[in-house]
């Protein structure tokens, strides 16, 4: 018998297909959600290698990032409806791929279309105890159901499509415990912003967070989803909540949830998915719910949080020079003054939407503030439901009229203004009160400024015309008049220093049935380059927390190829608005234009989005190795999958290498010997996982290696059918019973 285990341990253990002695595991994936941005190159890889989608019954695709959110009344097809050529190409490419491979698809005329992380739960495709992946960092959302759900890169998307498995090593266990009563007017979004303010954007790196505590136990599924969603903003691989009666009540009757006797069997199993008494957590953070104020962000990182009643931080009071520089840079970008009152910050835009806060409860909360009021003069406010079904439900409840009468724009489902990838974008200098999850520089459009907050707070800001305390706008429906719900303390402070944690499956889809897998190919399908020794003058980059939006902004993700992105690498740092080069940026300087190595002072390189376009852009520019003190998890993986190497070294050694780089001295990154060699012969040793090293040095394709374990994958699928039959789709089941299944169609559930 194993010792006491956490929820994460249990779900992980239940999915092991094959474990190597070195800790690398082939993990079975129950659910794979696919969108148009991160899948074209994966389907192309599949085609080139002559492979099929292994489990169509566990795969669901939709379009969300590129779709315009304007009325679809005139829609006839995507090719004519989507005006922007690159966006159109990604959407049409997915439409072609789902047809070609038989993948279940919610397209633009399907009411079930919406943001990937909204539609999965809505359909009951997301189930407790499952493993769920998507080429998207906010896959963590599905952890609200007690699923192990995480974002992956495009190479991994291809791996999952081909093998229904993924290569993983075990993460650490982290617990975030929130006990007590939340103050009136404080929502789960405030809680999560507060948590990220406490642990920092790298606080959860290498860990899976389990959220627990009395405050969390009372939360609705929507509220839990908002928190799990933003686990990635805390750097975590995933965020999980133990499934309970609230979870089961949400799932019961959903189209793909189990039914009848199978439902009872499933619930009985789901109830076992709790952390055992005495299970080990590598770190624990405890938060008192009553201490959490309505929280917003002031800066350019989700960790830059402050109470709505607080003030903009003063760099002069920063703990150290590094912090001072960080605050100054953020204030300059955000156009804010030190010590300015948060509630005095005027806004131009409001965005209520995104996979964090576009579900029915979110819209209800915003509507309760908007009801009977008007959007302030000069503010453009939009509400974008997370899916066609959320939109429909809201319209049934009359919320659309509440919004439109108040002057909000009522839109069609999609990612919209969460990221600058479709027509909904900020223009330079515009300032947005946003219910989304990322406030990185340029996130909602080049030069745009984002303040993250809850739906109620965003609605309050729309009405006030500046950042505002939603508690002042809470309405008493019976009286029909606005009344302040609580007395507000003048200056609630939120901790500014980071707290160090003390150590301490449905009746799915239909399709192809038993998989037919083509013979393993031994050479990399995409021709993965070998990595041995890479040398030359490294480019120094002195900045921490470099996010993937900064490495490659969203507007450049609209490609269906892996190549050609080098020119857009670090676009906002590299180019002026007129397209001319900024001479001060390191990669524009003569000595570094051909650098193959980047040395970064400051950790958490590659945080944020899962876009594999980030390592592709680096590679296309010519950079094959990045040396930093730490890397965000998904980015780290993505580098390896493309024959490039993330090298982790201690800060002191990096400081030496930065000086070498500035002096134009050559470095060599020697993977076989696992050292970085300086020009004077000194060597700094680094660690690397032995399996990954083997793949990189030999240019091996991981899919082929995994398919060598075909017998084990099949055995696992048999075991899964026996233990958790509700995870198999209907046609899959009938194929196994020997009945002839009909050809897959995209609506055949
Ligand atoms: C496009 C996709 C890769 C990206 C993500 O991984 O998060 C996007 O959804 C985002 O929010 O930045
Ligand atoms: S974070 Fe924004 S862009 Fe990314 S999936 Fe969610 S809504 Fe879409």
Structure commentary:
With 749 residues, the chain is α/β, with parallel strands linked by helices. It folds into three domains: 7-288 and 709-736, Aconitase, domain 3, CATH 3.30.499; 295-316 and 325-482, Aconitase, domain 3 (2-Layer Sandwich); 533-699, Alpha-Beta Barrel (Aconitase, domain 4), CATH 3.20.19. It contains 25 helices and 29 strands. The strands form eight sheets. Strands 5-4-3-6-7 form a five-stranded parallel sheet. Helix 7 links the parallel strand 9 and strand 10. Helix 13 runs parallel beside helix 16 (455-464). The radius of gyration is 25 Å and the shape is globular. Residues 477-526 and 739-749 have low confidence and may be disordered. The structure holds 3-isopropylmalic acid and iron/sulfur cluster (SF4). Residues 64-65, 115, 136, 138, 354-355, 415, 418-419, 436-437 line the site of iron/sulfur cluster.
Q: How would the blueprint of this fold be written?
A:
Layout: H1 7-13, E1 16-19, E2 25-28, E3 31-34, H2 40-48, E4 59-62, H3 78-81, H4 85-101, E5 104-106, H5 116-123, E6 131-134, E7 148-151, H6 154-163, E8 165-168, E9 172-179, H7 188-199, E10 207-212, H8 214-217, H9 221-229, E11 238-240, H10 245-251, H11 260-270, E12 283-288, E13 295-297, E14 305-307, H12 321-334, E15 349-352, H13 360-370, E16 380-383, H14 388-396, H15 399-406, E17 409-410, E18 431-434, E19 449-452, H16 455-464, E20 475-476, E21 481-482, E22 533-537, E23 539-542, H17 548-551, H18 571-574, E24 597-601, H19 613-621, E25 625-628, H20 633-640, E26 645-648, H21 651-662, E27 666-670, E28 675-678, E29 683-685, H22 690-698, H23 702-707, H24 710-723, H25 730-736
Parallel strand pairs: 3-4, 3-6, 4-5, 6-7, 9-10, 9-12, 10-11, 15-16, 15-18, 16-17, 18-19, 23-24, 24-25, 25-26
Antiparallel strand pairs: 1-2, 2-8, 13-14, 20-21, 22-27, 27-28, 28-29
Helix pairs in contact: 2-6, 7-9, 13-15, 13-16
This protein binds 3-isopropylmalic acid and iron/sulfur cluster (SF4).
């Amino acid at each position: 018998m194993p010792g006491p285990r956490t929820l994460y341990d249990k779900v992980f253990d239940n999915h092991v297909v094959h474990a190597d002695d070195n800790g690398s595991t082939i993990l079975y994936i129950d659910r794979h959600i696919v969108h148009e941005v991160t899948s074209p190159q994966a389907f192309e890889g599949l085609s080139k290698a002559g492979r099929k989608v292994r489990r169509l019954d566990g795969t669901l695709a939709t379009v969300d990032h590129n779709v315009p959110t304007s009325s679809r009344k005139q829609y006839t097809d995507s090719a004519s409806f989507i005006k922007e050529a690159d966006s159109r190409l990604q959407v049409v490419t997915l439409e072609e791929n789902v047809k070609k491979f038989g993948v279940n698809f919610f397209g633009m005329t399907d009411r079930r279309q919406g943001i990937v992380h909204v539609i999965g739960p809505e359909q009951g495709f997301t189930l407790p105890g499952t493993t769920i992946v998507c080429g998207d960092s906010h896959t963590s959302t599905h952890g609200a159901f007690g699923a192990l759900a995480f974002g992956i890169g495009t190479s991994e998307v291809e791996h999952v499509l081909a093998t229904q498995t993924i290569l993983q090593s075990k993460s650490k266990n982290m617990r975030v415990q929130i006990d007590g009563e939340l103050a009136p007017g404080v929502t789960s979004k405030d809680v999560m912003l507060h948590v990220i303010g406490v642990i920092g954007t790298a606080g959860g790196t290498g860990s899976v967070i389990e959220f627990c505590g009395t405050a969390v136990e009372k939360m609705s599924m929507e509220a839990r989803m908002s928190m799990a969603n933003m686990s990635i903003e805390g750097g975590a691989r995933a965020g999980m909540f133990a499934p309970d009666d609230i979870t089961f009540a949400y799932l019961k009757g959903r189209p793909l949830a189990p039914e009848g006797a199978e439902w009872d069997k499933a619930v009985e199993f789901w109830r076992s998915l709790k952390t055992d008494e005495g299970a080990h957590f590598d770190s624990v953070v405890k938060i008192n719910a009553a201490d959490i104020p309505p929280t917003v962000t002031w800066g350019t990182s989700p960790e830059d949080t402050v109470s709505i009643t607080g003030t903009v931080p003063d760099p002069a009071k920063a703990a150290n020079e590094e912090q001072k520089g960080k605050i100054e840079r953020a204030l300059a970008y955000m156009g804010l003054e030190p010590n300015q009152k948060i509630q005095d910050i005027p806004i131009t835009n409001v965005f209520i939407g995104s996979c964090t806060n576009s579900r029915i409860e979110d819209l209800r909360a915003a509507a309760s503030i908007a009801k009977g009021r008007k959007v302030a003069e000069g503010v453009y406010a939009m509400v974008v439901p997370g899916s066609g079904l959320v939109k429909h439900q809201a319209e049934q409840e009359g919320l659309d009229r509440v919004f439109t009468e108040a002057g909000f724009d009522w839109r069609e489902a999609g990612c919209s203004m969460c990221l600058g990838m479709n027509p909904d974008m900020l223009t330079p200098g515009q300032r947005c009160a946003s219910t989304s999850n990322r406030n990185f520089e340029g996130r909602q459009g080049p030069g745009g400024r984002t303040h993250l907050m809850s739906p109620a707070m965003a609605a309050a800001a729309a009405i006030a015309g500046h950042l505002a305390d939603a508690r002042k706008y809470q309405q008493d429906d019976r009286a029909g008049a606005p009344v302040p719900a609580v007395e507000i303390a003048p200056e609630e402070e939120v901790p500014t220093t980071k707290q160090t944690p003390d150590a301490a499956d449905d009746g799915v889809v239909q399709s192809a049935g038993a998989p037919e897998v083509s013979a393993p190919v031994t050479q990399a399908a995409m021709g993965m380059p070998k990595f041995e020794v890479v040398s030359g003058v490294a480019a120094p980059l002195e900045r921490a927390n470099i996010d993937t939006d900064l490495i490659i902004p969203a507007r450049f993700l609209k490609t269906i190829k892996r190549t050609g992105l080098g020119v857009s690498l670090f676009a906002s740092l590299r180019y002026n608005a007129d397209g001319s080069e900024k001479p001060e940026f390191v990669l524009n300087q003569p000595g570094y234009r051909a650098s193959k190595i980047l040395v970064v002072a400051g950790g958490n390189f590659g945080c944020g989005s899962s876009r594999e376009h980030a390592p592709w852009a680096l590679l296309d520019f010519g950079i094959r190795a990045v040396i930093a003190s730490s890397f965000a998890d998904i980015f780290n993986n993505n580098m390896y999958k493309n024959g490039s190497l993330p090298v982790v070294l201690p800060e002191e050694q990096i400081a030496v290498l930065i000086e070498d780089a500035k002096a134009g001295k050559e470095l060599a990154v020697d993977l076989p010997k696992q050292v970085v060699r300086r020009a004077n012969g000194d060597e700094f040793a680094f660690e690397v996982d032995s399996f990954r090293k083997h793949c990189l040095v030999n240019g091996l394709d991981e899919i082929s290696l995994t398919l060598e374990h075909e017998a084990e994958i099949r055995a696992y699928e048999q075991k899964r059918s026996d233990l958790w039959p509700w995870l198999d789709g209907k046609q899959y089941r009938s194929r196994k019973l020997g009945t002839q299944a009909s050809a897959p169609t995209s609506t055949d559930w």
